[in-house]
Amino acid sequence: MCGIVGLFIKKKSLQTRLGELFSGMLHCMASRGPDSAGFAIYGAAVPPGKLKLTLRHAQEDFSWQELAISFERKFKTKTPFTINSTHAVFVLPAKEAAIRRFLREEYSQVRIMSVGRRIEIMKEVGSPASVLDRFKVRQMRGSHAIGHTRMATESAVTTAGSHPFSTGQDLCLVHNGSLSNHNRLRENLKHEGMTFETDNDSEVAAGYLAWRLKKGDSLARALRNALKDLDGFYTFTVGTRDGFAVVRDPIACKPAVMAESREYVAMASEYRSLAGLPGIEKAKLWEPEPAAVYCWSGQITE
Amino acid sequence: MSKTSVRKLNQALHHLPARTKLKHWHILQPRGTHAVACGLNLPITVEIDGHAGYYCAGMNQLATVIIHGNAGVGVAENMMSGLVHVKGNASQSAGATGHGGLLVIDGDASARCGISMKGIDIIVKGSVGHMSAFMAQAGNLVVCGDAGAALGDSIYEARIFVRGKVKDLGSDCVEKEMRDKHRVRLAELLEVAKLKFKPNEFRRYGSARQLYNFHLDHAGKY
């Protein structure tokens, strides 16, 4: 099964409630995915030339301070960071490739969850309620967030197999469904130089999108290509720097509902998750059409 | 529904005595809850004031269920008799496998409306999504708007009436002549739904009956 939610806040004054409203939506999807949960939240942007890096170490008592000192030595700069349970968010004025090489060589146990100027991806195994509590999502602020509750069908219940999957800077993907051609596609993408951490089918969809974007596709074009190359059932939601995109496979077995009001744009696997949003009674509600790409890039009003 | 569980509600409705005086119920704040007013078996009226979740009014017998909002997946699935009226839009598989009764949808219905219907009558005032009336066996599907791709795929003996455009027909589904008996039945259904359309505005679709038996000529396709 699995559950997906996405929320973009249009009205600036409501951004302080992003975490609270988003938590309610994700919590509601626990019945569709009790195995693990994760989210990508888009908060304040770091200045141009700097990168926001979300990292994870399996041990909660891992010394992030020591890593910060190593970063400072390597990149000759101060690296502020904040710890959130098993994750930590660093801000670094360095290139992504150099950071990746350094971590691979010196800290192979540290996983990069996301890279970008705004995105923070956090995910863990366990019930959605416990994941929301662990990362204190209710208190988070920002313009938008997408999330996922997983009922594992294709591969093991692990943090690496949880969603969202990073697909590039400030981009990520969540998936409800199952892909039937992921093994061959993974091999093809490996030949193209893409790397994978798990046997998970959704990671292949994320790798596919990352590859298309690297080839120069716009997000909408990459998703239209995905409709041709991915075989199986899917509703995808893709988080972008300033909004999100939704696409369903041509058969559209996997559910999706969208809502738009003057204050927000929201999507969820089921209407239940939208029912708690303010003014939902008057919001425009619709189901995304099969095999159609919806890209929503937000305008924020005061 | 923010104060009571769906199980408590449905049990209260199931345990009503046959000659109950509580003939009219209002369900407030449904908030997309699943399986609301399922398995009703008395001639009572239940009004749902808001959007319903999955399988609303499933397995209905005799009751009238009115949804003042949208309905989730599988509204009135496997209905036996009675009336289910959705004032908004309906999600996938509306009226799936229904044996009897009438389902009226004022808005649109999405994919697979009337899938495997077995005698239910479904009237959609708007349009229906792809693969509607898939493997439909009996009953009438009336669509006042348009129909999506693969309408009536692998259909048996159900009748489909569409007033607008049909994107394309599924396997073994063909347009058929509208005869007097079809016009009479369609007129009855349109009247029940208080619709002013004339039967002549609709076209009829049904089974070409080519998939019923195995043809040796098709052996190579298997």
Key features?
heterodimer; A: 302 residues; alpha+beta; Glutamine Phosphoribosylpyrophosphate, subunit 1, domain 1; Alpha-Beta Plaits; 2 domains; 7-stranded antiparallel sheet; 7 helices; globular; B: 222 residues; mainly beta; Pectate Lyase C-like; 10-stranded mixed sheet
Description:
The complex is a heterodimer of chains A (about 300) and B (about 220). Chain A has helices spanning about 20-30, 65-75, 95-105, 130-135, 180-190, 200-215, 220-230; strands at about 5-10, 35-40, 50-55, 80-85, 85-90, 110-115, 120-125, 145-150, 165-170, 170-180, 230-240, 245-250, 255-260, 265-270, 285, 295. With about 300 residues, chain A is an alpha+beta fold. Chain A folds into 2 domains: about 5-40 and about 145-295, Glutamine Phosphoribosylpyrophosphate, subunit 1, domain 1 (4-Layer Sandwich); about 45-115, 2-Layer Sandwich (Alpha-Beta Plaits). The radius of gyration of chain A is 18 Å and the shape is globular. The model of chain A has no long low-confidence stretch (mean pLDDT about 95). With about 220 residues, chain B is mainly β. Chain B has a single domain, classed as Pectate Lyase C-like (3 Solenoid). Helix content of chain B is about 10%, strand content about 20%. Chain B contains 2 helices and 10 strands; from the N terminus they run αβββββββββαβ. Chain B has helices at about 5-15, 180-190, and strands at about 25-30, 45-50, 65, 85, 100-105, 120-125, 140-145, 160, 175, 205. The interface of A and B includes residues 252, 255, 281, 285 and 286 of A.
**CATH homologous superfamily of the largest domain in chain A - what is it?**
Aminohydrolase, N-terminal nucleophile (Ntn) domain
Using the coordinates above, name the CATH class of the largest domain in chain A: Alpha Beta
Mean pLDDT of chain A: 94
Indicate the CATH topology of chain B: Pectate Lyase C-like
Strand order of the largest sheet of chain A: 7-2-8-1-14-13-15
* Major pleated sheet of chain A: 7 strands, antiparallel
Task: Characterize the largest beta sheet of chain B: strand count, sense, and whether it forms a barrel.
Answer: 10 strands, mixed
The CATH class of chain B, by name, is Mainly Beta
User: Any guess at the CATH architecture of the largest domain in chain A?
Assistant: 4-Layer Sandwich
Instruction: Return the string of H and E elements of chain A.
Output: EHEEHEEHEEHEEEHHHEEEEEE
